[in-house]
Design a protein that fits this description.
Number of helices: 4
Strand content: 35-45%
Distance between the termini: 109 Å
Shape: globular
Order of helices and strands: HHEEEEEHEEEEEEEEEEEEEHEEEEE
Number of strands: 23
CATH class of the domain at 182-500: Mainly Beta
CATH architecture of the domain at 182-500: Beta Barrel
Length: 501
């Protein structure tokens, strides 16, 4: 027992003496890395791919590039190119992501302009002895649009620069320059030059008594130019019971009507078609605030149907009377009242609109030189009749009031109108080639006047910027004194190219 204890003691002494020697026999680490770690290391990577050294062992940066703190810093910009902070914020620190936003905002333009450049021409295909030129259209047009908004204020601008080869002049046409202010979500004010429109008709108008440009419509300009701008204030109030819109023009805004300068027309005073040498002379109401206009619309949706009521106080938009001495076309005073209904019916959309034109300067109908009062009716229906093929039809009626008094006092040299003027329209639209090619026809026909008007058109979209179109304005009529019949010698074809940007 004593021998065993003695043997164990000598073994312990031997192990104690040998262990330091074994430890000293391990291979030494490269110089300078002995203190890094006693853990087992992986083989070194090729030069340039070594992992970063532990903190405190990185090589020192060259003089002058030491970072002020331990965060990774981007190289500084050259002197004078640092982005400036908004006024009043120079002393504040700005996070990097906000600095990027400030840089982006600084580069943005305050106004973003877009629009198009349009070139088009047109010519009569029949001779017109009343006109010295066969050309009905020849112009270059540059349109620019922009807008800007701040909180509840919004400004819009649309302006056209036009060189007109037919009239041999250049002009600026401001189509829109208006300011919209929305003090609360349910109320807005729009003041300035603007294109206003309402009603349910397709190229027929009863309660839309805002100015139209018939010269553009008959010559082949884009259909958007049928609507002429007004200088007006429009107020809109939107609520759950009945939305209200009021448009006020401090001075009368007439149609851009036919005068004979570009298109010939029938003159009752001459008893024949006249043109450039006998242009229509007019006397327009032009006094500010004395010759003003007010239009009112009340409307609301009932399910998928919209019900609207209208009122207007102003003047006939195109000449509606005549002054004999001196000979002038005049614009009698007019009040109008109407209503409309538009909604889904079957597989299409139906609309009906009525209006009463109160020509209160001649309610008795005994003045043949002032338009009589009229009742007007419009019924329409539109639906798809095939794949990307739509059709619409309309019936329109003008019923003259006090017709017997009109006939009794009409001068012998003037042709009497029918008491009822009936008019039908047909629109056909077919889209092809992924909607890049559009074939359309809009046709008017009046069985009471025995006349008509055809508007065929082909539009092809070459790409997102380039568009070409071709079309015609074909007037038909048995008599040269009916509404469309008077324009027979103005039948024309046209073509245009538009580049949008």
């Amino acid at each position: 027992m004593r021998v065993g204890n003695t043997l164990c003691g000598w073994l312990c002494i031997l192990i104690f003496l040998v262990m330091p020697a074994l430890q000293a026999s391990e291979p030494a680490l490269p110089p300078g890395l002995e203190a890094v770690s006693q853990e087992k290391t992986e083989p070194a990577l090729p030069a340039g791919l070594e992992p970063s050294l532990p903190a405190g062992l990185e090589p020192a940066l060259p003089a002058g590039l030491e970072a002020a703190d331990q965060e990774k810093a981007e190289p500084s910009l050259p002197a004078g190119l640092e982005p400036a902070l908004p006024a009043g914020l120079e002393g504040l620190s700005v996070p990097e992501e906000e600095k990027d936003t400030l840089k982006t905002e600084k580069k943005e333009s305050p106004l973003d302009f877009h629009g198009f450049w349009d070139v088009r021409g047109g010519s009569r295909i029949t001779s017109d002895r009343a006109q010295s030129k066969d050309a009905t259209l020849g112009e270059m047009r540059l349109q620019l649009k922009t807008d800007k908004g701040w909180d509840r204020v919004f400004i819009e601008f649309t302006g056209d620069s036009v060189f007109d080869a037919v009239e041999e002049r250049a002009r600026i046409d401001i189509r829109q320059l208006r300011l919209t202010w929305t003090p609360v979500d349910s109320l807005d004010f729009r003041i300035g030059r603007q294109v206003l429109t309402w009603g349910t008709g397709d190229m027929l108008f009863i309660n839309d008594l805002f100015p139209k440009d018939w010269r553009s419509y008959f010559s082949g300009r884009d259909v958007e130019y049928l609507k002429a701008p007004s200088n007006a204030l429009r107020v809109g109030w939107f609520n759950d019971v009945m939305n209200v819109e009021v448009a006020y023009a401090p001075r009368f805004n007439p149609d851009r009507y036919i005068t004979g300068k570009r298109f010939s027309y029938f003159s009752p005073m001459h008893g024949r078609t006249v043109g450039r040498s006998q242009r229509l002379q007019t006397q327009e109401p032009k006094d500010w605030f004395d010759n003003d206009e007010v239009a009112l619309r009340l409307y609301r949706n009932i399910g998928s149907t919209q019900l609207a009521f209208y009122g207007y106080s102003g003047y006939w938009k195109s000449p509606g009377g005549m002054q004999l001495i001196p000979s002038r076309a005049v614009f009698p005073k007019l009040r109008a009242y109407g209503a409309s209904l538009r909604g889904a019916l079957g597989k299409g959309i139906a609309n009906i609109e009525i209006g009463y034109y109160d020509s209160y300067q001649d309610r008795s109908g005994s003045n043949p030189f002032v338009n009589n009062s009229e009742f007007r009716l419009l019924i329409g229906y539109e639906r798809e009749i095939g794949h990307e093929f739509t059709a619409s039809v309309q019936y329109y009626l003008e019923h003259m009031m006090r017709y017997r008094a009109y006939k009794r006092t009409l001068p012998f040299f003037m042709h009497a109108r029918d008491q009822d003027r009936h008019l039908f329209t047909l629109r056909l639209t077919k889209q092809l080639m992924q909607q890049n090619l559009i074939l359309s026809l809009f046709a008017y026909g009046s069985p009471s006047d025995a006349d008509g008007y055809l508007r065929p058109n082909i539009t092809y979209k070459i790409n997102d910027n380039w568009t070409v179109d071709f079309g015609g304005n074909i007037f038909l009529g048995r008599h040269n004194y009916s509404f469309f019949g008077q324009f027979q010698d103005n039948t024309n074809i046209y073509g245009g190219v538009r580049v949008s940007f």
